[in-house]
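## retry 2 of 3
previous attempt timed out at serialization; input unchanged, resubmitting
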Amino acid sequence: MSKMLLDKFLSRGVSRGQLGVVFADGSVKTYGSPADGFPEIVIRFADDRVPRDVFMDPRLGAAEAFMDGRLIIEDGDIMGLVTLLRANDRWERGDDNLRPSFAKRLINQASFAAERINNAVRSKDNVAHHYDIGNDFYALMLDEEHWQYSCAYWPRDDMTLGEAQTAKLAHIAAKLAIKPGQKVLDIGCGWGGMAIFLARHYDVHVTGITLSEEQIALAKERVRKAGVADKVTIELVDYRDFAKAGRKFDRIVSVGMFEHVGQPQFETFFEACAKLLSEDGVMLLHTIGRLGLPGTTDAFTRKYIFPGGYIPALSETVEASEKFRLIASDVETLRLHYGKTLRCWYANCLANKDAIVAMYDERFFRMWTFYLAGAATVFEYGSMCNYQIQYLRDRHAVPINRDYIAAEEKRLLGA
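## retry succeeded, writing output
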């Protein structure tokens, strides 16, 4: 029965490009037909349970079968397989051919609802689950220049990953409209890349906060090596506790952190930011976003990658922030930039496979590359994007046209 259901599922889901499937009983079926720009992939199922698992939940079922060596890619790679499936199920078309079964969707929604509470203790555990897996691992995947584990910015297709991350930092810095002598807060500072960049290019003091013990140790070391230890302070603290101290900042930046806040804490986050921001302050929020309506986090991502994470829709983000008189003064949607970034990280992981397997094991490597492939293609064909939202407390805080952004970006990049 499960084989028949999967056959109907793939017949409906793959029309352009070609997917060859070798079932555990030795039978072979081909779906779709060759098409320009679409991969041709051959996979093999090692046991009869794989069709059921994939049909019930294509993302989690396929991921766990691939991780366990039960779904084997004979021709192509996991990026090609996920690209083939997603390219045939583009979000813009609205077909939803590759959604989990109805029963699985109900289970996922119920589980997601139960996990929504993201208090300070759970937040630290959730951050540690992902970011404390080891700095040595991230060194193999990220750009050497800035250690940016967030969407790069690609003004040109021929840029290196490091150049694109530099362009991202300049793009954000320009939107902050920084003035000499100001105090800047970086919420979720990672390994200190943004703080170092701002300290190098401006006469400011930057305070970075994070919940990752692995990140803070290396961030402090990188700040010292960059020669900006007198201008940058890194603290291990939750943003909610930090906001209670009554400190004020002229500029606030947060890159790739809002995704970890959790939907029930959106208002708490923006209330904290409003308390921390000075009367004429400027804030720049850079976050993964959801196109269209609010949704839920899929079971694979919750279980293996970002427990407690939630990708916000633009509507619910702005709705939460406007309750605290934060003016959304500039909103930019980065549609394809993260897909390009993730493909670079994927290539780096493939190039360093032996080292990653030696650190962990083959199952971890397969899990991580599945995550990167799924993430890249959801930005290329699915429902994800990146939002950069500039917030003001005072409508007069920045010029009334956007020319200042381009001018400052050009200056920072020396163009």
